[in-house]
Amino acid sequence: MTFTAETTGEDFLKCMAVNTYGVFLCTKHQIKQMMKQDSIPAALEARSHGIRVNAVSPGFLYTQMVTQGLEELPGPVQDAWDAVIARQGRNATHDEIGDAVVLLSTPKMSLVNGHNLVCDKYARLRIQSIRYNITKALLTCV
To answer: Cβ distance 121 to 99 under 8 Å?
Structure first.
């Protein structure tokens, strides 16, 4: 991991290949499979075929990428990691996120469709609260 100014184009493209292109390829092939099964991969249209389309948005997880960053740039990466964990409250575990995926896929959750389950221990809400308070303060000044 390097700072933006020090990152080569090749390293940036490798990162994008993992973080973006990989997700694209998975989605592309999932859609192809769903279409073979005579369904359209959108939550509202797929429900008539018994297909539910949901997402899980995990909070911050300690991954191999974080480990590598801490080894290569211990100061800046550790500071950034500490800040995101402070915002989230604690580090999420891979098992917790896996449990959320399993939960959404169970028959007991059959009414849940088109939902994004955010698993970040209120980090997103804290950010929204900060934005709200800043906006409110700015409007008060006007």
So the answer is: no
Q: Rounded distance, CA 62 to CA 96, Å?
A: 12
Task: Between 19 and 54, name the one with better pLDDT.
Answer: 54
Query: Rg of the Cα trace of the chain?
Result: 20
- The one-letter code for the residue type at 19 is N
For residue range 105-130, what is the model confidence (pLDDT) as tens digits? 999 999 898 888 888 877 666 555 55
Query: Are 18 and 52 a contacting pair, CB within 8 Å?
Result: no
Residue-level pLDDT at 15: 81
38 backbone φψ class: left, alpha, beta (φ>0; ψ -120 to 50) = left
| Distance from C-alpha of 70 to C-alpha of 131, rounded to nearest angstrom | 30
Distances (CA, A) of 42 to 21, 38, 68, 116, 124: 21, 12, 37, 13, 25
Please name every residue paired with 111 in a beta bridge, in sequence order, or none if there are none.
Answer: none
The residues pairing with 92 across neighbouring beta strands, listed in sequence order, are 61
Phi, psi angle pair for 37, to nearest 5°? -90, 20
Say whether pTM exceeds 0.70: no
List beta partners, residue 118.
Answer: 57
